[in-house]
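User: Is it possible to get a 3D structure for a protein together with its bound compound? The compound here is NAP. I've pasted both below.
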Amino acid sequence: MNALITGASSGIGFELSKVLCRDFGYRVLGVGRNTVALKKLSEELGGCFSYLAADLSRIEEVNSVADYVVREFDRLDLLVNNAGFGVYGGVLQHSDEDLISVTTVNFLSPLILTKRLVGKMGRGSTVVFVVTAGIHVLMRDLPIYGAAKIALHYSLEALREELKGVGINVLAVYPGLVRTEFHRRAGREVAGGADPADVAKKIAQAIRGGKKRLYVPRYLTVVRLLGPYLPAFR
Ligand SMILES: NC(=O)c1ccc[n+]([C@@H]2O[C@H](COP(=O)([O-])OP(=O)(O)OC[C@H]3O[C@@H](n4cnc5c(N)ncnc54)[C@H](OP(=O)(O)O)[C@@H]3O)[C@@H](O)[C@H]2O)c1
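Assistant: Yes, that's possible. Here is the predicted structure of the complex:
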């Protein structure tokens, strides 16, 4: 079974690459910019993991990844759209470049990659989108990230209906706080959160179980009942 995971160099994608290779028998192609981390992971995992360097804020590089998979793979069984990043600060504090790259990496690239690759995926395969449970509240300090993830959520719900007929499952993952590099990279130190290895295990089990939605931790499922997003609690 072949899997493509974006954002395999760190955090959730890094741990998921390990679980899928070691425990679920996938051959994983990991994508990211940090080739040092990706190379290290390929040395650790051996033949089941290879990688491609790509900056997913650049549409031409997203298309290069798709071209590679179309050319090299007979079939893709699993596509995990996991790469993402945010920028802490108000809407007016985002530079034009931030607005474009946050929207591209979190929203446009996953859709373009999926659109290009579903033709390689058959009945029984899965497309995963890593969203955030934060879409259910107004994240005043991560507004563009939140907007991009809400757009992703909206699109994947529609896509799920479109792919039903061809037997491709769409799994949407909504993590709460996870202990990764995400917040530091976004410009803030945030303590606590779930272990990314546990989150990865839950994602792998949800893929195998054919689930449509996964909230981690599970109690966050309750916020979904309240609507796409709530006004801030403060
Ligand atoms: N951590 C949390 O609290 C949390 C909560 C909810 C949802 N999430 C979501 O979980 C997903 C994984 O994040 P994480 O927590 O594991 O954070 P992380 O440790 O910062 O990992 C992010 C991954 O995305 C990749 N990435 C970022 N920008 C990229 C770009 N321009 N081109 C290619 N790859 C890029 C990074 O790779 P390179 O640096 O190598 O490019 C890295 O592998 C994201 O979609 C995030 O929004 C995280």
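The chain has one domain: 2-224. The radius of gyration is 17 Å.
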